[in-house]
Amino acid sequence: MAKIVAVANQKGGVGKTTTTINLAASMAVEEKKVLVIDLDPQGNSTSGLGVNATKSTPSAYDFLIGNKSVEDAVIEAHLKYLYVLPGSLNMAGFESEAASVKGSQELLRGKLQDPYFEQFQYILLDCPPSLGYITLNALVSASSILIPVQCEFFALEGLSHLLKTIERVRKQWNPDLEVEGILPTMYDKRNKLSNQVLEDLRDHFPELVFKSVIPRNVTLGEAPSYGKPVLLHDALSKGAQSYLHLAREILAYG
Ligand code: ADP
Ligand code: MG
């Protein structure tokens, strides 16, 4: 059975997509078969993995609403063991469509029951920056949630709301949902505030914060413009190494 990890935080720009792409690539390098499902209408993890999706490219949205079989939609991305189910702008419509359908929180979970998914060891869900129906579907389907938190001002804002949402999902739909970990991102060791945020995170959530910390790293920011995970762009960069470290931390934990 695949372990399904939702990469979620309702704040935008905290490193969800960067984490999804680079954690997936690092797991693939560790010979785990990984599928990225791009649930964000912006489709940044799709383009960041080098997939040039057009309007006619079968997407996660088509799969979710039942228009396309998953076999037709999943694409190989760069590395052996690395696959992506592309995102599309259509997914934005799901928020309003879902509101009028009973049980729409459980749509993705139902779809992921397809035996097709058994070939993967990990499925990473890249979520949009909101706690709407798409993210809710991800949390209802997931084995765990990975929460990237940017080491900057207001970092902890919103985190308690997210943790409450996780509690609600556990109570109503998915009692087994675990917190895979809180991941400090864009850490700058020379910056006092960045260090303060890291310290606060470790104080408040000692059990939940990963040992791995993702530094602010120019190479990480520029890799998506080449349509590549950073490992394939500059494997020795601090960014690439930090995501490899995270992958090993998660794989060791199981
Ligand atoms: P989210 O998916 O949460 O909105 P992204 O992963 O898209 O966030 O990151 C937001 C922006 O910050 C992107 O331009 C990305 O390339 C950049 N970025 C993310 N993580 C880092 C990092 N560790 N160092 C430098 N830039 C980063
Ligand atoms: Mg994103």
UniProtKB/TrEMBL annotation:
AAA domain ranges (all copies): 2-179
The record's CDD domains line, in alphabetical order, gives: ParAB_family
Which PANTHER family does this UniProt record tie to the protein? P-LOOP CONTAINING NUCLEOSIDE TRIPHOSPHATE HYDROLASE, PARA FAMILY PROTEIN CT_582
This protein's species is: Leptospirillum ferriphilum YSK
Name one matching Pfam family: AAA_31
Task: Quote the InterPro entries the UniProt record gives.
Answer: AAA_dom, DNA_Partitioning_ATPase, P-loop_NTPase
The name this protein carries in UniProt is: Chromosome partitioning protein ParA
